Amino acid sequence: MNREPEFEGVRRMRGMVAPNVLSAFWTPLCAVGSHGERGPNAQICVSVFGASIVPDRPRLLVNLSKTNYTCDLVRKSGTLSVTLLSEAQVGLLETLGLQSGRDGDKLAGLEFELTGHGDPVFPGGVGFVAGEVIEAFDLGDARAYLVAVRERETWAEEARPMRWQEVRETIGEDFLLRWLAKSEREQEAARRVMKWR
Ligand SMILES: Cc1cc2nc3c(=O)[nH]c(=O)nc-3n(C[C@H](O)[C@H](O)[C@H](O)COP(=O)(O)O)c2cc1C
User: Fold this and answer.
1) What is this structure's pTM?
2) What's the CA-to-centroid distance between 153 and ligand 1, angstroms?
3) pLDDT computed for residue 1 by the predictor
């Protein structure tokens, strides 16, 4: 039987087709925040990595797509925040991951706090890390920000970080279909400009 592409998309999203070794390299789900003239904003990200072996000089490497409003805010402000989301915060995925701050104030109605630099963090998470950009690397479709950590706090050591590999099994089909459609558009745009050989 010829299955509809949407059905196949949902199966793929839920990890019901052959497991992809690359998905093991996605980090736990994070909310990456920054700020600009119109106030704070944040996006969902699975690409946040520790980047220092010197304990008193902690760094992060954070990859953000250039199409994201948050990426522009980080470029202009030179600061960002990272909330390590807990499993209880699944509700944030839709607001921060499917909508853009370019289209309106995504944080209206959400509970958040501001770091010393004015970047948003989301209580209920495992904790947060925030800092200043040391250097930005141009990946064509994305920017990789090397960040010097200036603030950090663990809120709930016992809370489990949220992982896409797990949450995609239980999250609603409506979310998966909207994420699939958005991902396809983003991939098309990225393909045109990404560095590759
Ligand atoms: C599960 C999930 C994972 C995502 N991972 C990333 C990521 O690693 N990097 C990225 O730039 N965008 C990622 N996104 C997409 C952004 O969160 C999304 O495009 C967001 O709407 C951008 O918001 P903004 O325009 O307000 O910055 C992810 C979204 C979801 C739902």
Assistant:
1) 0.95
2) 23
3) 46
